[in-house]
Amino acid sequence: MLSISPETIFRGNNAWEKSLPQITNLTKSPLILGRSIHTDNLRNKIFKDLKNQKLDANSVNLKFDCCYEDISRIKKIILKNNHDSIIAAGGGKVLDSGKYIAECLDIPCITVPLSASTCAGWTALSNIYTKNGKFIKDVALRSCPKILVYDHKFIQTAPLRTLASGIADALAKWYESSITSSKIDDGLVQQAIQISRVLRDQLLIDGKKAFKGEFENNPSWPNTIEACGLTAGLVGGIGGEKCRTAAAHAIHNAITQIITPNKFLHGEIVGVGLLLQLRLEEFKNNNKLADQSIKQLLVLMKELNLPTTIAELGINVFENQNLDKIADFTLRDESEIHFLPFEISKHDLVEVIANFEQQKIKI
Ligand SMILES: [Zn+2]
Question: Which pLDDT value is given to residue 204?
């Protein structure tokens, strides 16, 4: 079964206002789900607009992450108040929680991404974490959200760091899907991989210009946020589970197992995982172009102020057996790293990560 896209997508400036008639038709008593205090203003606007439509809206925030504790607390609130939909307005963790809870309760989910940090507003997938942010697993959902509202005016208010994170996550689509699935004899999968290649090229060209923080007369900005929030989701939708994540996300999941004082965004960690995946391809799969790709990515990542080593994510791999912990989690049986078309031993992975962290890579 393919869940290619949300049923309806509103995009551009004032997409939220344009979506109101359809939302009003779909739901009478929505629960608005959020998390960050920085986006309270936007959720207050959403709440007021829904009230003006005579909807019986209510609002609740995640306390932690997309975790079972928050999920069961919010499920109870919905059942107690008879809410008939969820409007998830926030970043990836909020969108993933909203989609997951809506599916459990068989009510529609409306996603309103408030940054370009991930494509979670689009996809039929939720990543589940512990309360303190350790990755547990991803869950495939029956369908994409009912309505996706990708309002550029909302996304303009997000910190630029979220845009950089979204770019790194979207770039990973090509490097991960092309290595895991390029030999799959399925036209749709091949087309999805090619979309991810064009997506990568556009991000390499437009990413830096979009990152300037200028929204007017800067076509790179809408193109880039839509590449991160929409096209990246479409690649997963068309490619399905065959267009899989690989080492970059597997390493991301392992890095989240180590709790650090400063939290990093999903794409910031995936970006480091992507560089490590390319090193693995170079050493274990004789990929002669990997070094070129790393240099090309590093130029953009530095321009976007993205972390480029695990140390820059606040983790010293040479302390507290961190290297062991990252390698073990990356290589566990259910890890996406096993979708790579070559074998990796713990020794290989430890060596690649240790070398990577020790050497200062020259651009
Ligand atoms: Zn991702």
Answer: 96
